[in-house]
Automatic annotation (TrEMBL):
InterPro entries: Aminotrans_V_dom, Pser_aminoTfrase, PyrdxlP-dep_Trfase, PyrdxlP-dep_Trfase_major, PyrdxlP-dep_Trfase_small. One of its GO terms (cellular component) is cytoplasm. GO terms for biological process: L-serine biosynthetic process. Pathway: Amino-acid biosynthesis; L-serine biosynthesis; L-serine from 3-phospho-D-glycerate: step 2/3. It is found in: Cytoplasm. Belongs to the class-V pyridoxal-phosphate-dependent aminotransferase family. SerC subfamily. Gene3D superfamilies: Aspartate Aminotransferase, domain 1, Type I PLP-dependent aspartate aminotransferase-like (Major domain). This is Phosphoserine aminotransferase. It comes from Sporomusa malonica. Signal peptide: none annotated. Keywords: Amino-acid biosynthesis, Aminotransferase, Cytoplasm, Pyridoxal phosphate, Serine biosynthesis, Transferase. GO terms for molecular function: O-phospho-L-serine:2-oxoglutarate aminotransferase activity; pyridoxal phosphate binding. L-glutamate binds at residue 44.
Amino acid sequence: KNFKKVYNFNAGPAALPLAALQKAQAEFLDFNGTGMSIMELSHRSKEYEAVHNQAIELLKDLMAIPAGYDVLFLQGGASLQFAMTPMNFLPAGKKAGYAMTGVWSEKAYAEAEKLGEVFVAASAKAGNYCSIPAVEELQYDEAAAYLHITSNNTIFGTQWQNFPETGSVPLIADMSSDILSKPFDVSKFALIYAGAQKNLGPSGVTVVIIRRDFMEQANKQVPTMLRYGTYAKDNSLYNTPPTFSIYMVKLILEWVKAQGGVAAIHKRNQEKAALIYQAIDSSEGFYVGHAEPEARSLMNVTFRLANEGLEKKFLDQAKKEGFVGLPGHRLVGGCRASTYNAVPYESCQALQELMLAFHKENA
Ligand code: PLP
């Protein structure tokens, strides 16, 4: 009752699991019998610390994070990570490689370029970022400070299907838009970062997963709040963390676990995205996908209407029928359906139906 049902396809902040929001609502004013909201608790209280530690443990468990890695909670978004990674791990005399697969890779590269020497290890720019370079195409040598990739390209709707084996070269990934969407081997990575506001929770917290021996090699001259070691040493409680955001992350991780974990979530993500890709592929060119089929993202489905004159009509009709967030990013135009973990299967079914019906009426 009083609940307006919408199909939320926002790119981030994005849909969150209803069950997690309801849990938060139920204990909003009185957390765990404290007589206070979670937001009103001291970050040094045992009640808050339990939430904080549960969030860390749940993430370690769900992602099968090996021993020797730390999970950290930072602020500043993924955008601050674009600068923090080179500040800490790009010493003078070394070069860092970047795989360019979209706007966010470009931003990461631009920040690193301000701080040290960088090179392009591969680029999909020539094809307007509709593809992902084959891992064999990546060019870097053993002397590289690190290799940086963007695992999912939120704006263009492409996703790495398999990750490179970089041997002794540390692999760093921006996983903001696909963390926790599928199982993968964390041990391939020296550092993973993700703004929370797609698959993990609300905005305000950035999750970092970092290999401890890599962290120990960081530049010691970096200011306190920009050093990973500061967060690791005090369990991300060196200063006041974004307590409410971390609490929401915990609720969302509990929801993921209740769904059967990351493997089960992945299976559902495949089914959800397939509904929309099927509508594109069966339309005989009425809808045109942006990503090459082998680079397609399970998280952001990007497409246009071949008849561009119909695009506004399609988006207007979608809006009328309760679809939110479907217009593409201003840099690519067209349409984008973000199908993150919490987007229900039913929303994707409804979008498929809309696409099929609109095609029929406007062919
Ligand atoms: N990286 C990726 C892949 C993103 O999708 C985004 C935001 O959408 C960002 C980085 C920037 O994240 P933030 O707004 O948390 O700085």
